[in-house]
Amino acid sequence: GNMSWGHAVSKDLINWTQEDVAIPMLQNQGWEDFTYTNTTGSLKDKGEVRYVGVPTTNWGDADGKKAIFSGSIVVDTNNVSGLGKDAILAFYTADYQIATRKNDGAEDGWGTWIGLTEIQEQHLAYSLDGGKTFIQYSKDGNAANPQAIIPTSMNQGGDAANFRDPSVVYDAVNKQYYLTVVSGQQALIYKSSNLLDWTYASKIERENDVGNGVWECPSLVPMKVAGTNETKWVFCISVQQGAHATGSGMQYYVGNMTADGTWVPESSKTLQNPMTMDSGEDFYAGIPFSNMPD
């Protein structure tokens, strides 16, 4: 289907008016040619593979499209990105399929055919008109065929097909931003000072119910401890299977952030004992607000 970001507006959060699509699927995307070694997932035994061809969202028809998956938004009030004061920055996962080959030089140099496989990468679009329209960001300036801000080559999770749901938050103490994405049974943390250039910082690995489904839609939330000046960092995550009321649900863990971008759990037992966000069986993929009045 048409996997895009929709747009609706409301004055009272009850009555909503549908607007034009905010971030449509990427169209007419160009030829891709890059390599990656998967250490987990369906291609873990293939060694270094070559992804080469025109992206598609149609499993067989090279339609040149990339789907717009979930993510998060930051209002850049101080223009640290240089994209404009109060620019609205939308971080999202682009998802597509592409021809995949072993990078072994066979078949006239193309590599041994594996098949069509999935790719997920992190992108950025920004708005200068309050969210009515968005412009695709690309370091080379080509908004029509944008480059990923965190491409597959920066995926430390080891599975090119599972690398999604970017959530961005500001660390006021260490004066840097964190972007958290999931990759299978782990969450990867990247850091940046300008919201454009990201480096890998650390990861959080699952210790409870390992192997049962995947993690999705992570977020790091700084919260004051009641009655103190201490700040804790709450790691929130959605689990596909095995939640409190069976099926899917949201869990959270309490910890701290270090200056190098590492989330440290409160104790050695923290990750083994998730706390439940909601006791229902359909509370999933919640997106937190940050830097808002209580």
From TrEMBL:
One GO cellular component term of this record is: cytoplasm
Recite the UniProt keywords alphabetically. Glycosidase, Hydrolase
Query: Which processes are annotated in GO (biological process)?
Result: sucrose catabolic process
Which GO-annotated molecular functions does the record name? Answer: sucrose alpha-glucosidase activity
Q: Where is the Glycosyl hydrolase family 32 N-terminal domain?
A: 1-26, 57-290
InterPro entries membership: Glyco_hydro_32, Glyco_hydro_32_N, Glyco_hydro_beta-prop_sf
Q: Which Pfam families match?
A: Glyco_hydro_32N (PF00251)
Q: Which PANTHER family match?
A: EXOINULINASE INUD (AFU_ORTHOLOGUE AFUA_5G00480)
Would you identify the family this protein belongs to, as annotated? Belongs to the glycosyl hydrolase 32 family.
Q: What is this protein called?
A: Fructan hydrolase
